[in-house]
Amino acid sequence: MPQKIKITRSHTSTTDATDEIIKALKKLKEVNKISIGIIKPTKSKGGKRAIKFLPITGGIVAMVRGSGTVQELYIYTSEIDFVKNYLLKVF
Q1: pLDDT along the chain (91 residues), means of 10
Q2: In this structure, are residues 77 and 30 in contact, taking their beta carbons and an 8 Å threshold?
Q3: pTM, to two decimals
Q4: Hey, CA dihedral for 61, 70, 67, 8, is it positive or negative?
């Protein structure tokens, strides 16, 4: 059963790709908090899905690319490598 993770929604909209990542993160006890960031349009309307990571204090920022958008997802965890590897496998 997924654990209860605090999700901060300063931006209430999420992309389909980000929804998929959030569902996966809810299954991990290693994740303490998720904060949903802004959605930015990209120049290409198609494009394949991708995920990139940037380090931040207390976790990572996942830059989630969907079709025509990129959304920031702030993931707070002490197990950064584990979470990165898990997301790369499921996404």
Answers
A1: 63 86 94 93 81 97 93 96 96 89
A2: yes
A3: 0.86
A4: positive
